[in-house]
Amino acid sequence: MSVVREPDTTTTALPPPRSETGAVGWMRANLFSSWYNTALTVVVGAVAALVAWYGLSWLLIDADFSVIATLGGLLLIGQYNTEVGCPGQNCFWRPQFILLMVSTLLGMAWVVAGGGLTKRIAITVPVVVALFAFLPYGLDRMGWDVRLLLLANLPALLLGWALGRYTLLGTWRTVAILSVGGFLLALVLLRGIPGVPGLQPVSVLHWGGLMLNLLLAVAGIVVSFPIGIALALGRRSNLPVVKLLCVVFIEVFRGVPLITLLFMSQVLVPLAFPENFPLNSLLRAAIIITLFSAAYMAENIRGGLQALHPGQAEAARALGLPGWQTTMLISLPQAIRNVIPAIVGQFIALFKDTSLVYIIGMLDIVELSRKFATTYVENGMLPYLDNVRELFIFLALVFWIFTYGMSYISGRIERHMGVGER
Amino acid sequence: MSTNGHTVIDEEIIVCRDVHKWFGNFHALRGITTSVKKGEVVVIIGPSGSGKSTFIRTLNRLEQHQRGDIIVDGIELTNDVRNIDAIRRDVGMVFQSFNLFPHLTVMNNITLAPIKVRHLPSKEAEGIAMDLLERVGIPEQAEKYPAQLSGGQQQRVAIARALAMQPNIMLFDEPTSALDPEMIKEVLEVMRELAASQMTILAVTHELGFAREVADRIVMFDEGVIVEDQPPDEFFNNPRHERVKHFLSQIL
Q1: CA A358, A364, A367: angle at the middle one, nearest 5?
Q2: Residue spans of alpha helices (H) in A273-418
Q3: What does pTM read for this prediction?
Q4: What pLDDT digit, counting tens, does each position of B132-171 carry?
Q5: Going edge to edge, which strands form the sheet with B217-222?
Q6: Backbone phi, psi, residue A364, to 5°
Q7: Which of B227, B104, B136 is nearest to A418 (CA)?
Q8: From CA B146, how far away is CA B137, in angstroms rounded?
Q9: What's the helix, strand, coil split of chain B in %, to 5?
Q10: Which uninterrupted H or E stretch holds B13?
């Protein structure tokens, strides 16, 4: 038997039941709801307190982070601007000039995107870079030239903004073209041009530090994404040869550890070339990292394509759209949107994997730190051995800032595209 | 003039001769021979698995037939991709599950094919789209995304999207089966209006009221063959086959 109500005698809408509210209620429900829950809370709380006590007392009393300041530029660009990499000259302005190009491009992207996330990134990056101009080093270690070039990122941002706003350069197409051109220019600038004053060549073996990680990551991300898309489409192709090639490529690169691939690129690839052929080991590393990432990317995107309702492609074909337009306009945008978290996860993995180039003797920020902490001998002493903890905590923080940045951007893009809603 | 007041031109726009289709070992269409005249409204009914959806999907090559001939609007359906694309431009299709593109607005759903396939300027395509949205009664939804619309509204957008290519033939594959009862009406209303505008229509549907009122012919499929093909009055009042009587008794 039901209680039947007339529609017009509507009952008052009631607030939800006030069960366990407030901090005490929350604790009672979540921490002390039963005897074993209470025991667990006490044990975990005690361990956490111990860790916090020793951690904090080390951090506040014993820790000496001066090692980071001492290493400074080495962590950023490795031996690039040392007597080894760039003898008799100052080469520090080159990576700094590249930062100025990045700030200018960000200014243009800000105008083109018209605000939102792009604007936030466009402002944050140059401002943070410019803040480094105020590091409390003596002028003998960090001269006016270095500081001014850092501060110049702010006018560079405004320049880019003005170019986007008041010239014909303010379109995505020009920003994209200038970005690619800028990246190639950056490589030429870092490499140097023989015979040109101020641009003396610096061997790629001396490119290092965070700069090396970032170069490999940016190149890897930008190039592996389209290759991954092509491989994913190829693996679903009706053409047996294309499909087989893609499957073999993907399975080989996913099936072999990255370290092994990097190592093989150094010891096997030279066999295919004449003796003394000038092979670029950085380029080989970049290619290997890119292809490795592309193989994973392909499977992520294939997963996204697989998850699409077949009716989507059918509807597009029924409208007379040819197959490639159906893929480019209907299937791929939806597939990629649905697997953004996996794609960004792959980008983050790629960024962290760049530190594996130590296997081929390149000094990225991690390997550099390890070497300095353990092998740099001064007066028969290992001067930084006592500060290994500080150094690696700093490294963890650096990696975390970049990877969290990527996570944040991906989260914003997901929300913007309404993933899981539309 | 046909029984339901459509101007039917005595010119066959769809011709099928002995069409067969297999899914693996399953013989889905077992020799379909039929034709449809310009302006005719044909309703196709039949139990599930009888091949009725498969049949209309062969007409724009969403399914490939393996034997027999299909000629649509003077073009024979072969493996020639140009023929297939030409027929698809000429034949609009509406699906049971709408299949709107969820990443595009209603407006972009409708203008996509006219711009990309017919190469219309986007202003012109948008004009056509607005006219069609007026026609299906939801011009105010143009800038929304499909997921923000009700099922009935989505299906009306899907009809507008198909009409934007200015097809000569419209195929409906159970257009109301996924809808709540109160939304079925608004979709049938649009289809009724379309039928009155001399469009050639093939519709797979279980809406017998609609069939009785709008169809020139009702075709019944069972086990991959056509078992009945009659004007509505004959079909309902004087079915020739036991199977039709049985089917009608089950769903009426």
Answers
A1: 55
A2: 281-306, 310-318, 323-325, 332-338, 340-353, 365-375, 388-417
A3: 0.85
A4: 999 999 999 999 999 999 999 999 999 999 999 999 999 9
A5: B91-94, B169-173, B200-204, B41-45, B217-222, B225-230
A6: -75, 180
A7: B104
A8: 15
A9: 40, 25, 35
A10: strand B9-23
> Complex ipTM, two decimals?
0.92
DSSP at B169: E
Taking an 8 Å cut-off on Cβ atoms, the answer to whether B112 and A329 are in contact is yes
Burial class (CB in 10 A: 0-12, 13-18, 19+), A46: exposed
Q: How many residues does chain A have?
A: 422
CA distance B24 to chain A (A): 18
Mean pLDDT of A77-91: 86
Positions in chain B whose pLDDT score sits under 50: 1
Mutate to test the interface with A, among B88, B111, B118 (most CBs of A within 10 A): B88
Which residue matches tokens 């257009």?
Answer: B175
DSSP secondary structure string, A201-244?
---GGG--HHHHHHHHHHHHHHHHHHHHHHHHHHHT-S-HHHHH
For residue A421, the chain B residues in CB contact (below 8 A) are 147
Looking from the CA of A383 toward its CB, the CA atoms found within 13 Å total 11
What is the least distance, in Å, from the CA of A7 to any CA of chain B?
A: 20
Hey, of B57, B58, B62, B171, which one would you mutate to test binding to chain A, going by the most A CBs within 10 A of its CB? Answer: B62
Residue ranges of chain B whose CB lies within 8 Å of a chain A CB: 60, 62, 85, 88-89, 91-93, 95, 97, 99-103, 112-113, 116-117, 145-147, 158, 161-162, 165
